[in-house]
Write a structure and sequence with these properties.
The complex is a heterodimer of chains A (about 280) and B (about 350).
Chain A lengths: L11 H24 L2 H28 L9 H19 L5 H8 L2 H5 L5 H31 L10 H25 L1 H4 L3 H14 L11 H10 L7 H8 L4 H32 L6
Helix pairs in contact in A: 1-6, 2-3, 2-6, 3-6, 3-7, 3-11, 4-7, 6-7, 7-11, 7-12, 11-12
Chain B lengths: L8 E17 L5 E17 L3 E5 L6 H9 L6 E6 L8 H5 L2 E5 L11 H11 L4 H15 L14 H13 L5 E5 L7 H16 L4 E5 L3 H7 L2 E6 L2 E6 L1 H8 L4 E6 L14 E5 L4 E5 L5 H11 L2 E7 L3 H10 L34
Parallel strand pairs in B: 3-7, 3-8, 5-6, 6-7
Antiparallel strand pairs in B: 1-2, 1-4, 8-9, 10-12, 10-13, 11-12
Helix pairs in contact in B: 4-5
Classes of the chains: A mainly alpha (about 280), B alpha/beta (about 350).
Chain lengths: ~280, ~350
């Protein structure tokens, strides 16, 4: 008489719930870790606010020169774009994240591999905690300053606020993925400074920080939007909030972000797998 | 989680090798590749509850072996299994069953207090709250953590951090604990605290300990089995006593005399090593004679003021081992009782360079 051995998958709830608990615990620790740097938080919020004035007056001058509306933005939309953008800058954290590259260089990445959580998941959860802390401490000061000194637009469509919240969340995930990939070059190059400089330059210009990408002609802006993740980092959430386009395009832009978030996370996973395969931990 | 049979090896390595490709400058623009062998065919079997000291000079391949055993580094060839799992392919599952402490690196979160780090580890390793609390209570008591549990890790002294690292590595109840130079840079008191804790941990027989260190006092205090690696190969695997026997380390008798002697006495089986203090101090090596025979012989021949018996110095033996290739490539399976109770050793020692072509 033969016997049959079958492997039965455990019920989904048994794995998913502990997974989310772990994820939430790491996110919470990310929040706590970044909340320890209070002076840096105050200095950062102050700097963002000062540069907000600078950028806002430049763009308002551009709009005035263009006869009131520049690239489809009214002055109030431009002011909103700038002040909310100044707040989002620290939430998505375009620059100054070198944690992974530093740990690869010093060999401490070994500790990440010795934990029973995938490094991409672990770094992502930490980054979401960091973004949550930035949302409270770095997003609000510039936005409140903008509200105090300038005419800002308030959303007129019911779906704008939930779409904006979703769009910011996706922007954080995409930006995390890009930073992870840039840092991960250190697995091969041992030092990610070159890649980091390239990223700093291109993300500033192509994400819509230095100027709204709608200032570009369509033949440049559309491919940029679809074929690169950069506009999804900053320009998309801001365009969603100021309702620059109709409801269809507004939702479509968030759809593009969903695609980019999936693609970038897959790329992170793949790169991490390849890196682990060839990994050489530096030092003794 | 698959439990191993009680007598199954916890660690098993067969012909384990790791080679690194290094790019060397060969001209203004040209680079050539050079293959450097870090681990060159290691065979090792470690059974449950053993405490093994894994030593070797810098660059011998100790940390590389440990990284292959923990799944951080893929072997170039050969086979390794830890807790019955291939480390690289099953790294995440293995992580739940092993603990690792790197003396020169931190696995704690730099910005968080130890208490928060420990709490996070409970979620990361999914340890039931009661188990976690019991283990933490034990570590707090034995490693005296209470004074600095709420201080961020970046503000801790090295000794405090290391005690935190040990706790962090043990909170999920690992079957094997890998320690890579855990006492490096520690002061005497911290080093003793860490050693005492590890000794107690090893005494329970539940946790297998693999310790790499340059501090041989760690080994003497903790490990009955010593694996010496050089140029990526095992050159000794057995007890410390077996190492002394193999390299002819001998006890020494140091005799302080009442009066200096013009002609030192000749003792059978105990050659005179040196004469010090203007002939008032003689040092004999116990070769075929025992220390008591040497003392008795001396007492008959000269007027003794004081006498001391020195144990062979492990550092001298190991330094000799590091400096020169191993004299014999013979395997040195330790006799029963030479190593931790209930453990057997299978090892193959090879002479460095034997297969070099």
């Amino acid at each position: 008489m033969g016997s049959v051995t079958a492997t039965v998958a455990p019920p989904i709830g048994r794995n998913i719930i502990p997974w989310f608990r772990t994820f939430a615990a790491i996110t919470g620790s990310g929040f706590r870790r970044y909340s320890t740097y209070r002076q840096a938080t105050v200095a950062g919020a102050f700097t963002n606010t000062v540069f907000g004035f600078l950028r806002c007056y430049v763009l308002l001058a551009v709009a005035a020169g263009a006869g009131g509306v520049a690239a489809g933005y009214s002055p109030a939309q431009l002011a909103t774009f700038v002040w909310v953008g100044q707040g989002l800058l620290a939430v998505v954290l375009l620059w100054r994240w070198t944690d992974l590259a530093d740990r690869i260089r010093t060999g401490e990445v070994a500790s990440d591999l010795l934990r029973p959580v995938h490094p991409v998941v672990s770094y992502l959860a930490t980054d979401l905690g960091r973004a949550g802390y930035a949302l409270l401490t770095r997003f609000l000061p510039p936005v409140l300053t903008g509200l105090l000194f300038f005419d800002l637009v308030l959303p007129s469509r019911w779906q704008t606020v939930p779409l904006f919240v979703l769009s910011v969340g996706l922007a954080v995930v995409i930006c995390f993925g890009c930073r992870f990939l840039v840092n991960a070059t250190a697995y091969w190059l041992y030092d990610a400074r070159g890649a980091m400089i390239l990223w700093t330059l291109s993300s500033g210009v192509l994400a819509g920080l230095y100027f709204p990408l709608r200032f570009l002609p369509d033949w440049a802006a559309v491919p940029l939007w679809l074929a690169t993740p950069f506009p999804s980092l900053l320009q998309t959430p801001l365009d969603v909030l100021v309702e620059r386009d109709g409801a269809g395009i507004q939702a479509g832009m968030v759809g593009v972000q969903v695609l980019w978030a999936g693609l970038i996370l897959l790329a992170c996973r793949r790169v991490q797998r390849r890196a682990e395969r060839k990994l050489v931990v530096q030092g003794g | 989680m698959t439990a191993l049979p009680p007598d199954a090896p916890v660690i098993e390595a067969r012909d384990l090798r790791k080679e690194f490709v290094v790019r060397v400058r060969a001209g203004r623009f040209r680079r050539t590749k050079r293959v450097v062998g870090a681990v060159d065919g290691i065979d090792l079997t470690v059974r449950r509850g053993e405490m093994i000291g894994y030593i070797g000079p810098n660059g011998a391949g100790k940390s590389t072996t440990l990284k292959m055993m923990t799944g951080v580094l893929s072997p170039s060839s050969g086979e390794v299994r830890v807790c019955g799992l291939p480390p690289v392919a099953q790294r995440v599952r293995l992580a739940l069953r092993i603990g690792v402490v790197f003396g020169q690196r931190s696995q704690l979160w730099w910005d968080l207090p130890l208490r928060d780090s420990f709490d996070l580890l409970r979620h990361v390793y999914r340890v039931p709250a009661a188990e976690h609390a019991a283990r933490l209570r034990r570590c707090r008591a034995e490693l005296d953590l209470d004074g600095f549990l709420d201080i961020p890790v970046r503000q801790l002294s090295l000794g405090q951090r290391m005690r935190g690292e040990l706790t962090a590595a043990l909170l999920h109840g690992p079957e094997v604990l890998f320690l890579d130079e855990p006492t490096i840079g520690l002061d005497l008191v911290s080093r003793q605290a860490v050693r005492a804790f590890l000794a107690e941990l090893g005494a329970t027989g539940d946790t297998t300990l693999v310790l790499t260190t340059h501090d041989l006092a760690d080994i003497e205090r903790l490990c009955r089995r010593l694996v010496v690696i050089d140029h990526g190969r095992v050159v000794h695997d057995g007890s410390i006593e077996a190492l002394h026997a193999r390299y002819g380390s001998r006890r020494r008798v140091v005799a302080d005399l009442e009066e200096p002697l013009a002609e030192p006495p000749v003792l059978p089986g105990a050659p005179l090593l040196r004469v010090e203090a203007d002939g008032r101090r003689l040092v004999f090596a116990c070769e075929s004679a025992t220390a008591s025979e040497v003392v008795a012989g001396l007492a008959r021949l000269v007027a003794l003021r004081d006498i001391a018996i020195e144990e062979p110095d492990i550092e001298d033996v190991v330094a000799r081992l590091y400096r020169a290739p191993a004299p014999t490539p013979a395997p040195t399976p330790a006799p029963a009782g030479d190593v931790a109770q209930g453990c057997s050793i299978t090892s193959t020692a090879k002479v460095p360079g034997a297969s070099a072509s």
